[in-house]
Design a protein that fits this description.
By secondary structure, this protein is of the alpha+beta class. It is built from 21 helices and eleven strands. Among the domains are: 1-129, Beta Polymerase, domain 2 (2-Layer Sandwich); 287-344, no CATH class; 357-401, no CATH class. It binds adenosine-5'-triphosphate (ATP) and magnesium ion. Adenosine-5'-triphosphate binds next to helix 7.
Protein backbone atom coordinates (compact mmCIF):
# COMPACT_ATOMS: atom_id res chain seq x y z
CA UNK A 1 0.00 0.00 0.00
CA UNK A 2 1.35 3.45 -0.90
CA UNK A 3 1.12 6.49 1.34
CA UNK A 4 -1.47 7.95 -1.03
CA UNK A 5 -3.62 4.80 -1.02
CA UNK A 6 -3.50 4.69 2.75
CA UNK A 7 -4.56 8.36 2.99
CA UNK A 8 -7.48 7.73 0.60
CA UNK A 9 -8.60 4.70 2.59
CA UNK A 10 -8.52 6.77 5.80
CA UNK A 11 -10.50 9.59 4.20
CA UNK A 12 -13.19 7.18 2.95
CA UNK A 13 -13.50 5.60 6.35
CA UNK A 14 -13.82 8.99 8.08
CA UNK A 15 -16.50 10.01 5.56
CA UNK A 16 -18.45 6.82 6.15
CA UNK A 17 -18.42 7.59 9.86
CA UNK A 18 -19.92 11.01 9.16
CA UNK A 19 -16.82 13.18 9.39
CA UNK A 20 -15.31 15.65 6.99
CA UNK A 21 -11.86 14.54 5.80
CA UNK A 22 -9.55 16.03 3.17
CA UNK A 23 -6.04 15.82 1.83
CA UNK A 24 -4.19 18.88 3.10
CA UNK A 25 -1.14 21.09 2.57
CA UNK A 26 1.95 20.01 0.68
CA UNK A 27 0.43 17.01 -1.08
CA UNK A 28 -2.35 19.16 -2.60
CA UNK A 29 0.24 21.69 -3.79
CA UNK A 30 2.35 18.92 -5.32
CA UNK A 31 -0.63 17.25 -6.94
CA UNK A 32 -1.62 20.52 -8.63
CA UNK A 33 1.99 21.03 -9.72
CA UNK A 34 2.10 17.44 -10.99
CA UNK A 35 5.05 16.77 -8.67
CA UNK A 36 5.43 13.63 -6.66
CA UNK A 37 4.36 14.38 -3.09
CA UNK A 38 6.63 13.42 -0.19
CA UNK A 39 3.75 12.45 2.09
CA UNK A 40 -0.03 12.67 2.13
CA UNK A 41 -1.52 14.41 5.13
CA UNK A 42 -5.18 14.13 6.09
CA UNK A 43 -7.13 16.92 7.82
CA UNK A 44 -10.49 16.22 9.45
CA UNK A 45 -13.12 17.59 11.80
CA UNK A 46 -12.96 14.34 13.79
CA UNK A 47 -11.23 14.90 17.11
CA UNK A 48 -8.10 12.88 17.96
CA UNK A 49 -10.06 10.67 20.37
CA UNK A 50 -12.47 9.78 17.57
CA UNK A 51 -9.68 9.09 15.09
CA UNK A 52 -7.99 6.79 17.61
CA UNK A 53 -11.26 4.88 18.12
CA UNK A 54 -11.82 4.47 14.40
CA UNK A 55 -8.45 2.96 13.44
CA UNK A 56 -6.83 -0.13 14.81
CA UNK A 57 -3.21 1.01 14.91
CA UNK A 58 -2.39 4.60 15.84
CA UNK A 59 0.37 6.64 17.46
CA UNK A 60 -0.95 9.25 19.83
CA UNK A 61 2.17 11.32 20.55
CA UNK A 62 0.78 14.53 19.01
CA UNK A 63 -2.87 14.00 19.98
CA UNK A 64 -2.81 16.98 22.35
CA UNK A 65 -2.01 19.19 19.35
CA UNK A 66 -4.60 17.47 17.19
CA UNK A 67 -2.33 15.09 15.32
CA UNK A 68 -2.71 11.30 15.28
CA UNK A 69 -0.51 9.01 13.18
CA UNK A 70 -2.52 6.20 11.62
CA UNK A 71 -0.52 3.09 10.73
CA UNK A 72 -1.62 1.06 7.74
CA UNK A 73 0.34 -1.81 6.37
CA UNK A 74 3.88 -0.41 6.41
CA UNK A 75 2.97 3.23 5.94
CA UNK A 76 2.11 6.04 8.31
CA UNK A 77 -0.39 8.82 7.64
CA UNK A 78 -0.69 11.97 9.68
CA UNK A 79 -4.34 12.66 10.47
CA UNK A 80 -4.75 16.15 11.92
CA UNK A 81 -7.89 17.71 13.34
CA UNK A 82 -8.75 21.11 11.81
CA UNK A 83 -7.16 23.51 14.23
CA UNK A 84 -6.11 27.07 14.87
CA UNK A 85 -2.97 27.75 16.81
CA UNK A 86 -2.73 30.35 19.53
CA UNK A 87 -0.28 31.83 21.97
CA UNK A 88 2.95 31.76 20.02
CA UNK A 89 5.76 32.29 22.47
CA UNK A 90 8.78 34.03 21.00
CA UNK A 91 8.43 32.72 17.46
CA UNK A 92 8.49 29.10 18.50
CA UNK A 93 5.79 26.46 18.68
CA UNK A 94 2.22 27.47 19.62
CA UNK A 95 1.43 27.04 23.28
CA UNK A 96 -2.08 25.76 22.59
CA UNK A 97 -4.37 24.68 19.76
CA UNK A 98 -8.12 24.93 19.29
CA UNK A 99 -10.14 22.60 17.14
CA UNK A 100 -11.98 24.56 14.46
CA UNK A 101 -13.16 24.50 10.85
CA UNK A 102 -11.31 23.76 7.63
CA UNK A 103 -11.20 27.44 6.69
CA UNK A 104 -9.56 28.43 9.98
CA UNK A 105 -7.17 25.53 9.65
CA UNK A 106 -6.20 26.88 6.22
CA UNK A 107 -5.39 30.29 7.62
CA UNK A 108 -2.94 28.97 10.26
CA UNK A 109 -0.78 27.42 7.51
CA UNK A 110 2.33 29.19 6.27
CA UNK A 111 1.98 29.94 2.54
CA UNK A 112 -1.01 30.20 0.22
CA UNK A 113 0.31 27.36 -1.96
CA UNK A 114 0.50 25.18 1.19
CA UNK A 115 -2.95 26.15 2.46
CA UNK A 116 -5.24 24.16 0.16
CA UNK A 117 -7.33 21.03 0.71
CA UNK A 118 -8.51 18.40 -1.74
CA UNK A 119 -11.56 16.22 -1.51
CA UNK A 120 -10.56 13.05 -3.36
CA UNK A 121 -14.11 11.67 -3.33
CA UNK A 122 -15.53 14.68 -5.17
CA UNK A 123 -12.21 15.44 -6.92
CA UNK A 124 -12.51 19.01 -5.70
CA UNK A 125 -9.90 21.54 -4.60
CA UNK A 126 -10.94 23.57 -1.55
CA UNK A 127 -9.05 26.82 -1.55
CA UNK A 128 -9.79 29.44 1.12
CA UNK A 129 -6.50 31.28 0.68
CA UNK A 130 -6.13 31.84 -3.10
CA UNK A 131 -3.46 29.20 -3.31
CA UNK A 132 -4.37 28.26 -6.88
CA UNK A 133 -3.85 31.85 -8.04
CA UNK A 134 -0.36 31.85 -6.55
CA UNK A 135 0.41 28.47 -8.08
CA UNK A 136 -0.41 30.01 -11.48
CA UNK A 137 1.72 33.06 -10.70
CA UNK A 138 4.50 30.80 -9.41
CA UNK A 139 4.60 32.80 -6.19
CA UNK A 140 5.31 32.05 -2.55
CA UNK A 141 3.26 34.35 -0.35
CA UNK A 142 2.40 34.13 3.33
CA UNK A 143 -1.23 33.68 4.28
CA UNK A 144 -2.01 37.02 5.98
CA UNK A 145 0.50 39.73 6.86
CA UNK A 146 4.03 38.43 6.38
CA UNK A 147 5.57 40.21 9.38
CA UNK A 148 2.93 38.80 11.71
CA UNK A 149 3.09 35.31 10.31
CA UNK A 150 6.88 35.18 10.61
CA UNK A 151 6.78 36.51 14.16
CA UNK A 152 4.62 33.49 15.09
CA UNK A 153 7.26 31.11 13.77
CA UNK A 154 10.48 32.44 12.28
CA UNK A 155 11.29 29.09 10.71
CA UNK A 156 8.75 30.03 8.03
CA UNK A 157 11.34 32.46 6.58
CA UNK A 158 13.67 29.59 5.87
CA UNK A 159 10.76 27.48 4.59
CA UNK A 160 9.93 30.22 2.06
CA UNK A 161 13.45 29.98 0.62
CA UNK A 162 13.25 26.18 0.79
CA UNK A 163 10.05 26.04 -1.29
CA UNK A 164 11.41 28.63 -3.71
CA UNK A 165 14.48 26.43 -4.19
CA UNK A 166 12.50 23.21 -4.57
CA UNK A 167 9.79 24.38 -6.95
CA UNK A 168 11.46 27.38 -8.56
CA UNK A 169 8.82 29.92 -7.46
CA UNK A 170 9.54 33.59 -6.68
CA UNK A 171 8.94 34.94 -3.22
CA UNK A 172 6.33 37.70 -3.36
CA UNK A 173 7.87 41.17 -2.60
CA UNK A 174 6.13 41.89 0.74
CA UNK A 175 6.96 38.37 1.94
CA UNK A 176 10.58 38.80 0.83
CA UNK A 177 10.84 42.22 2.52
CA UNK A 178 9.59 40.73 5.77
CA UNK A 179 12.21 37.97 5.52
CA UNK A 180 14.97 40.55 5.00
CA UNK A 181 13.71 42.59 7.97
CA UNK A 182 13.39 39.62 10.33
CA UNK A 183 16.27 37.42 9.18
CA UNK A 184 18.27 37.90 12.41
CA UNK A 185 15.44 36.41 14.44
CA UNK A 186 15.99 32.98 12.92
CA UNK A 187 18.26 32.41 15.91
CA UNK A 188 15.14 32.02 18.07
CA UNK A 189 14.59 28.71 16.26
CA UNK A 190 16.31 25.51 17.34
CA UNK A 191 19.33 24.41 15.34
CA UNK A 192 17.72 21.07 14.57
CA UNK A 193 14.73 22.68 12.84
CA UNK A 194 17.02 25.05 10.93
CA UNK A 195 19.18 22.11 9.81
CA UNK A 196 16.17 20.27 8.37
CA UNK A 197 15.13 23.17 6.13
CA UNK A 198 18.74 24.01 5.21
CA UNK A 199 19.16 20.36 4.29
CA UNK A 200 16.25 20.51 1.85
CA UNK A 201 17.89 23.52 0.17
CA UNK A 202 21.33 21.93 -0.04
CA UNK A 203 20.26 18.57 -1.40
CA UNK A 204 18.14 20.15 -4.12
CA UNK A 205 19.77 20.59 -7.54
CA UNK A 206 18.87 24.28 -7.29
CA UNK A 207 21.09 24.54 -4.20
CA UNK A 208 23.36 27.36 -5.42
CA UNK A 209 20.39 29.65 -6.12
CA UNK A 210 18.86 28.72 -2.76
CA UNK A 211 22.00 29.56 -0.79
CA UNK A 212 22.37 32.80 -2.77
CA UNK A 213 18.91 33.78 -1.60
CA UNK A 214 19.87 33.01 2.00
CA UNK A 215 22.88 35.29 1.63
CA UNK A 216 20.85 38.04 -0.01
CA UNK A 217 18.15 38.21 2.65
CA UNK A 218 20.54 37.91 5.58
CA UNK A 219 19.48 34.45 6.76
CA UNK A 220 22.92 33.00 5.93
CA UNK A 221 24.62 35.67 8.07
CA UNK A 222 22.17 35.02 10.90
CA UNK A 223 22.78 31.26 10.86
CA UNK A 224 26.56 31.38 10.21
CA UNK A 225 27.60 34.73 11.75
CA UNK A 226 31.32 34.43 10.97
CA UNK A 227 31.08 33.21 7.40
CA UNK A 228 32.28 36.15 5.30
CA UNK A 229 30.59 37.27 2.09
CA UNK A 230 33.66 36.17 0.12
CA UNK A 231 33.68 32.71 1.70
CA UNK A 232 29.96 32.33 1.03
CA UNK A 233 30.29 33.38 -2.63
CA UNK A 234 33.08 30.89 -3.15
CA UNK A 235 30.98 28.19 -1.49
CA UNK A 236 28.06 29.01 -3.78
CA UNK A 237 30.36 28.78 -6.80
CA UNK A 238 31.48 25.30 -5.70
CA UNK A 239 27.88 24.24 -5.01
CA UNK A 240 26.90 25.39 -8.50
CA UNK A 241 29.36 22.85 -9.94
CA UNK A 242 27.73 19.85 -8.25
CA UNK A 243 25.54 17.65 -10.38
CA UNK A 244 22.52 15.60 -9.41
CA UNK A 245 21.95 14.01 -6.04
CA UNK A 246 24.24 14.84 -3.14
CA UNK A 247 23.77 14.42 0.55
CA UNK A 248 23.56 17.10 3.20
CA UNK A 249 27.00 16.78 4.79
CA UNK A 250 28.70 16.72 1.40
CA UNK A 251 26.94 19.91 0.30
CA UNK A 252 27.75 21.56 3.65
CA UNK A 253 31.44 20.82 3.14
CA UNK A 254 31.23 22.36 -0.33
CA UNK A 255 29.60 25.47 1.12
CA UNK A 256 32.54 25.81 3.51
CA UNK A 257 35.16 24.78 0.98
CA UNK A 258 37.08 28.04 1.33
CA UNK A 259 37.22 27.91 5.14
CA UNK A 260 39.50 26.31 7.70
CA UNK A 261 38.15 22.96 8.86
CA UNK A 262 37.92 23.98 12.49
CA UNK A 263 36.18 27.23 11.64
CA UNK A 264 33.62 25.38 9.51
CA UNK A 265 32.89 22.86 12.25
CA UNK A 266 32.45 25.67 14.77
CA UNK A 267 30.02 27.51 12.48
CA UNK A 268 28.04 24.30 12.06
CA UNK A 269 27.77 23.71 15.81
CA UNK A 270 24.58 25.75 15.93
CA UNK A 271 22.88 23.12 13.73
CA UNK A 272 23.53 20.32 16.24
CA UNK A 273 24.39 17.92 13.45
CA UNK A 274 24.84 14.22 14.08
CA UNK A 275 28.29 12.84 14.86
CA UNK A 276 28.28 11.14 11.46
CA UNK A 277 27.53 14.35 9.60
CA UNK A 278 30.22 16.23 11.51
CA UNK A 279 32.78 13.51 10.78
CA UNK A 280 31.79 13.48 7.12
CA UNK A 281 32.25 17.26 6.83
CA UNK A 282 35.53 17.08 8.73
CA UNK A 283 36.93 14.33 6.49
CA UNK A 284 36.11 16.25 3.32
CA UNK A 285 37.56 19.54 4.52
CA UNK A 286 40.69 18.02 6.09
CA UNK A 287 41.57 16.14 2.94
CA UNK A 288 41.06 19.01 0.51
CA UNK A 289 43.89 19.28 -1.99
CA UNK A 290 45.36 15.85 -1.31
CA UNK A 291 43.97 14.34 -4.50
CA UNK A 292 45.83 16.93 -6.57
CA UNK A 293 49.19 15.46 -5.56
CA UNK A 294 50.65 13.90 -8.71
CA UNK A 295 53.21 12.05 -6.63
CA UNK A 296 50.90 10.47 -4.09
CA UNK A 297 52.47 7.17 -3.04
CA UNK A 298 50.63 3.94 -3.78
CA UNK A 299 50.18 3.26 -0.05
CA UNK A 300 48.63 6.69 0.54
CA UNK A 301 46.40 6.26 -2.47
CA UNK A 302 45.17 2.90 -1.18
CA UNK A 303 44.57 4.39 2.28
CA UNK A 304 42.49 7.29 0.98
CA UNK A 305 40.63 5.09 -1.52
CA UNK A 306 39.54 2.88 1.36
CA UNK A 307 37.84 5.79 3.13
CA UNK A 308 34.06 5.71 3.27
CA UNK A 309 33.66 9.16 1.71
CA UNK A 310 36.38 8.96 -0.93
CA UNK A 311 33.87 9.40 -3.74
CA UNK A 312 32.54 12.61 -2.16
CA UNK A 313 36.10 13.87 -1.71
CA UNK A 314 36.79 13.32 -5.39
CA UNK A 315 33.57 15.05 -6.44
CA UNK A 316 34.16 17.97 -4.07
CA UNK A 317 37.69 18.45 -5.37
CA UNK A 318 36.39 18.38 -8.94
CA UNK A 319 33.82 21.06 -8.08
CA UNK A 320 36.49 23.16 -6.36
CA UNK A 321 38.79 22.91 -9.39
CA UNK A 322 36.00 23.93 -11.73
CA UNK A 323 35.03 26.83 -9.48
CA UNK A 324 38.59 28.16 -9.31
CA UNK A 325 39.97 30.52 -11.93
CA UNK A 326 42.16 28.50 -14.24
CA UNK A 327 40.86 25.44 -12.43
CA UNK A 328 39.84 23.60 -15.56
CA UNK A 329 43.53 23.09 -16.20
CA UNK A 330 44.17 21.61 -12.79
CA UNK A 331 41.36 19.14 -13.27
CA UNK A 332 43.96 17.18 -15.22
CA UNK A 333 45.37 16.02 -11.86
CA UNK A 334 42.03 14.41 -11.08
CA UNK A 335 41.76 12.85 -14.51
CA UNK A 336 45.20 11.31 -14.04
CA UNK A 337 44.28 10.08 -10.59
CA UNK A 338 41.14 8.47 -11.98
CA UNK A 339 43.20 6.62 -14.60
CA UNK A 340 45.58 5.44 -11.91
CA UNK A 341 42.68 4.15 -9.84
CA UNK A 342 41.22 2.28 -12.81
CA UNK A 343 44.60 0.66 -13.48
CA UNK A 344 44.70 -0.64 -9.92
CA UNK A 345 41.72 -2.79 -10.82
CA UNK A 346 39.90 -4.78 -8.21
CA UNK A 347 42.62 -4.96 -5.54
CA UNK A 348 42.30 -5.25 -1.80
CA UNK A 349 42.75 -1.75 -0.36
CA UNK A 350 43.09 -2.77 3.28
CA UNK A 351 44.81 -6.18 3.29
CA UNK A 352 45.51 -7.90 6.61
CA UNK A 353 49.03 -6.98 7.85
CA UNK A 354 51.52 -9.73 6.96
CA UNK A 355 52.91 -9.70 10.53
CA UNK A 356 51.30 -8.69 13.81
CA UNK A 357 52.81 -7.20 16.99
CA UNK A 358 53.60 -10.63 18.48
CA UNK A 359 55.46 -11.65 15.32
CA UNK A 360 57.52 -8.47 15.46
CA UNK A 361 58.44 -9.01 19.15
CA UNK A 362 59.41 -12.61 18.39
CA UNK A 363 61.74 -11.22 15.74
CA UNK A 364 63.41 -9.01 18.37
CA UNK A 365 61.46 -5.74 18.27
CA UNK A 366 60.96 -4.01 21.64
CA UNK A 367 57.43 -3.14 22.66
CA UNK A 368 56.65 0.57 22.91
CA UNK A 369 56.20 3.41 20.42
CA UNK A 370 59.01 2.13 18.20
CA UNK A 371 57.06 -1.11 17.72
CA UNK A 372 54.09 0.86 16.42
CA UNK A 373 56.33 2.77 14.02
CA UNK A 374 57.92 -0.44 12.77
CA UNK A 375 54.52 -2.08 12.23
CA UNK A 376 53.37 1.00 10.36
CA UNK A 377 56.43 1.09 8.11
CA UNK A 378 56.04 -2.57 7.34
CA UNK A 379 52.39 -2.02 6.46
CA UNK A 380 53.34 0.82 4.11
CA UNK A 381 55.90 -1.48 2.45
CA UNK A 382 53.13 -4.06 2.10
CA UNK A 383 50.70 -1.55 0.56
CA UNK A 384 53.45 -0.33 -1.78
CA UNK A 385 53.94 -3.92 -2.92
CA UNK A 386 57.59 -4.04 -1.75
CA UNK A 387 56.84 -7.04 0.46
CA UNK A 388 54.15 -9.46 -0.58
CA UNK A 389 54.66 -12.64 1.50
CA UNK A 390 55.15 -13.43 5.16
CA UNK A 391 58.70 -14.67 4.44
CA UNK A 392 59.58 -11.41 2.71
CA UNK A 393 58.12 -9.49 5.63
CA UNK A 394 60.27 -11.43 8.11
CA UNK A 395 63.38 -10.70 6.04
CA UNK A 396 62.37 -7.03 5.84
CA UNK A 397 62.02 -6.82 9.65
CA UNK A 398 65.29 -8.66 10.32
CA UNK A 399 67.14 -6.28 8.03
CA UNK A 400 65.53 -3.30 9.67
CA UNK A 401 66.38 -4.49 13.19
CA UNK A 402 69.94 -5.27 12.23
P1 LIG B 1 7.09 18.57 1.87
O1 LIG B 1 6.53 18.32 0.53
O2 LIG B 1 8.53 18.81 1.85
O3 LIG B 1 6.66 17.59 2.92
P2 LIG B 1 5.09 20.29 3.00
O4 LIG B 1 4.49 21.53 2.41
O5 LIG B 1 4.23 19.08 3.04
O6 LIG B 1 6.45 20.01 2.27
P3 LIG B 1 5.50 19.88 5.78
O7 LIG B 1 6.60 20.41 6.62
O8 LIG B 1 5.37 18.44 5.54
O9 LIG B 1 5.57 20.69 4.42
O10 LIG B 1 4.15 20.44 6.43
C1 LIG B 1 2.87 20.07 5.95
C2 LIG B 1 1.96 21.29 5.92
O11 LIG B 1 1.83 21.84 7.22
C3 LIG B 1 2.50 22.45 5.07
O12 LIG B 1 2.14 22.31 3.71
C4 LIG B 1 1.82 23.63 5.72
O13 LIG B 1 0.47 23.76 5.30
C5 LIG B 1 1.81 23.26 7.18
N1 LIG B 1 3.01 23.74 7.90
C6 LIG B 1 4.17 23.06 8.10
N2 LIG B 1 5.05 23.78 8.80
C7 LIG B 1 4.44 24.95 9.08
C8 LIG B 1 4.83 26.12 9.79
N3 LIG B 1 6.03 26.23 10.36
N4 LIG B 1 3.93 27.13 9.87
C9 LIG B 1 2.69 27.00 9.32
N5 LIG B 1 2.29 25.94 8.63
C10 LIG B 1 3.14 24.92 8.50
MG1 LIG C 1 4.80 17.20 3.87
Amino acid sequence: MTNREAALYIIKKLHKSGYEALLAGGCVRDMLLRRRAVDYDVATNAHPKEVIKLFRRTLKVGAKFGVVIVLMDKVQVEVATFRSEAGYVDGRRPSSVQFTSASEDASRRDFTINGMFYNPLKKEVIDYVHGQKDLKRKTIRTIGIADERFSEDYLRMLRAVRFSTQIGFKIEPATWKAICNNAKKINKISGERIAIELGYILINTNRAAGISMLVECGLAKAIFPNLTAAQASYGILVLSQLRGKVDFAFAMACLFSNCETEFALEECEILKLSRNDNKHIQFLLENRGKLLDYEMSLSNLKKILAKQHFHDLFEMQKAIQKATIGGRKSISALIKLNRRIKLLGDIELQPKPLLNGHDLIKLGAVSGPSLGRLANELYVAQLEGHVTTKEQAIEWVKLRLA
